[in-house]
Structures are given as C-alpha cells and as structure tokens.
Design goal:
The strands form two sheets. A five-stranded parallel β-sheet has the order 2-7-1-8-9, sandwiched between helices. A four-stranded mixed β-sheet has the order 4-3-6-5. The protein has 198 residues and is an alpha/beta fold. The protein is globular. Strand 5 and strand 6 form a beta hairpin. It contains eight helices and nine strands. 43% of the residues lie in helices and 21% in strands. Helix 1 packs across helix 7 and helix 5 runs antiparallel to helix 6.
Length: 198
C-alpha cells in the first residue's frame, strides 16, 4: 500500500476556501481533514475534536516542548497547531490528508515535510475578492481593507506553492483540487510497488 498525499491548502480570507474544502471532502472518502489544536475557547456550535481540539495554553506549551506539532503559530492572541503524529499515522494508512493553513504555517510544513503538495486558492481577480468580502456583510469597511491588505501580502508567497487553484466557480475549484490529488496518487514513487515480482 502506498502512502497518502499531504495536501497543504492556503488562500486569502473571502476566497471561498471553506466551501471548496467541504465539497472536496464530500467527494473523497479517503481524505482526512486535519483538525488543529487551539487555545482559543470554542465558539457556539463548535465541537471538540471536530472543529478543533480545544486545550489550555499550558497543555499547548507542553505539546510544543514534546515536539508534537508539525507547525504552530500564534494568531490574535491564541495558539494554533497541527499534530505531527496524527498526520503521519493517516499518511501511513494510505489516506490523503488535507491541511487548511495560512502561509507562515504552510512554509513550516514544507520545511519539515518537503513531500507535501501545496495549493493556493485565488479569486479570479482582486476586484472579485473585494466584492465577495463586501457581499458577506459581516465586516466593517476598515476590517475589509485589512483583509485585502493581508491578501496582497499573502499573494507574494504564492510562488512558493506547487499549484494555483482559481475559485471562479466552486465546482471548478473542486475539480482542480481533485485532479491534483489524482495526479499525485499516480506518481511513480507511489506506484512502483505494483511492479514487484515483474
């Protein structure tokens, strides 16, 4: 049995990542969505072990000290981290693993696991991203401008990714991600075992 593919997915706020990921997950039974650890309190409706593993800051620090995280970062005063053991276990089982992660975390993952395949989801244009953020109606104009500025900074990191997925329509973006997963599973390194005994 060949190892699974570690898929690292990044994209700016408002690009539609969550929607695309939900559709990809619904279409692939052998795909595991990595659940992060966090020190932030659960929001209404969030479940421990489903949305995040909610832990105390002290417990999170102990996990850092034991070297348990593939990557971790602090964001708006809370810590977030990805369990190395869970990722390795799923990959060894032959499952593909999907990480939804920001650009700094993605860089750390690529450093520690260079075999990871990275995708950056982009909108069809910057104007479209601005329109989507405004249409959501959840943020102030100031917050939207901050998100757009962050998106401009993140765009400079795209050159470090293996693939760019354009989310012009959700189904199209889903098809592209599934195509990447299929192509990666066909790499010779993952298929040479079928030639044993030839």
């Amino acid at each position: 049995m060949s190892k699974g593919t570690l898929l690292v997915l990044s994209g700016s706020s408002g690009v539609g990542k969550s929607t695309v990921i939900a559709r990809v997950m619904a279409q692939r039974s052998n795909l595991y969505f990595s659940v992060s650890f966090t020190t932030r309190p659960p929001r209404e409706g969030e479940k421990d072990g489903v949305n995040y593993y909610f832990v105390t800051r002290e417990e999170f620090q102990q996990r850092i000290d034991r070297g348990e995280f593939l990557e971790y970062a602090e964001y708006v005063g809370n810590l977030y981290g990805t369990s190395m053991a869970v990722i390795r276990e799923k990959l060894e089982e032959g499952m593909d693993v999907l990480l939804d992660i920001e650009v700094q975390g993605a860089a750390k993952v690529r450093q520690r696991m260079p075999e990871a395949v990275s995708l950056f989801i982009v909108p069809p244009s910057f104007e479209e991203l601005s329109r989507r953020l405004h249409d959501r109606g959840t943020d102030s104009e100031e917050k939207i401008q901050q998100r757009l500025e962050t998106a401009r900074r993140e765009a400079k990191e795209i050159v470090n990714y293996d693939y760019i997925v354009v989310n012009d329509a959700v189904e199209h973006a889903v098809e592209e991600i599934l195509a990447v997963l299929t192509a990666e599973s066909c790499r010779k390194e993952k298929r040479l075992h079928v030639l044993e005994g030839v």
